[in-house]
Design a protein that fits this description.
This protein is mainly alpha-helical and about 190 residues long. The chain has helices at about 25-45, 55-70, 80-85, 90-105, 105-110, 135-140, 155-170, and strands at about 10-15, 15-20, 125, 185.
Length: about 190
């Protein structure tokens, strides 16, 4: 057996001298393995076309869902008959409601009674004169009032469905909502054409 003094290092601190024991092989293997792995990880996750993150996965899933869903109806035209038709279809109104909740509710309130944006449940409209103007407002925005143009974020079908949902909101005036702003118009005619 080797003498213990042969394994001592020259290094001493506060009168304590330490043994020259190398790190275990498995520990060194883990250390160098993790360094090599980190190089490949950085290359794949930051510079590769194969990378994914939760936001990208969500966008891809949402896009494929909408493609499948909108495959049933094709591309919706932003005209009055289409908006009225979608406003009377529960399935599409529910989808318009979820799009509204995700994008519009922070300014117009979840029930449409108004917040920083105008009340959508009364018959007063600042920029709309006819039902298809709702689509135009959503698409182009109103920069003077701080409303962004949603046409760069939502596709045409989504904006038509939100327009139909907003037209539907106009059927139920909410008590205690924001004061009416703009011109008072007759309620939208949402009877489906036969």
């Amino acid at each position: 057996m080797a003498d213990k003094t042969e394994k001592l290092t020259d290094h001493a601190y506060d009168g304590i001298q330490e043994f020259d024991n190398p790190a275990p092989g498995w520990w060194s293997l883990l250390l160098f393995g993790s360094i090599v792995f980190s190089v490949f990880y950085v290359l794949v996750m930051h510079f590769s076309l194969l990378r994914t993150n939760p936001e990208m996965q969500w966008d891809n899933a949402q896009s494929s869902y909408y493609q499948e869903l909108f495959g049933e109806i094709g591309t919706l035209e932003p005209d009055a008959p289409t908006i009225v038709q979608m406003a009377n279809d529960e399935k599409w109104t529910a989808l318009g409601s979820s799009i509204y909740a995700a994008n519009c509710a922070q300014c117009h309130a979840g029930d449409g009674s108004g917040g920083t944006g105008p009340n959508l449940t009364d018959n007063a409209w600042i920029h709309a004169k006819k039902i298809e103007d709702i689509y135009t407002i959503i698409d182009e925005g109103v920069t003077t009032k701080g409303m962004p143009a949603w046409g760069i974020r939502l596709n045409q079908n989504e904006m038509v469905l939100v327009s139909a949902f907003v037209a539907n909101m106009n059927r139920n005036s909410i008590a205690g909502g924001k004061q009416a702003e703009g011109e008072i118009l007759a309620p939208w005619d949402l009877k489906p054409s036969e």
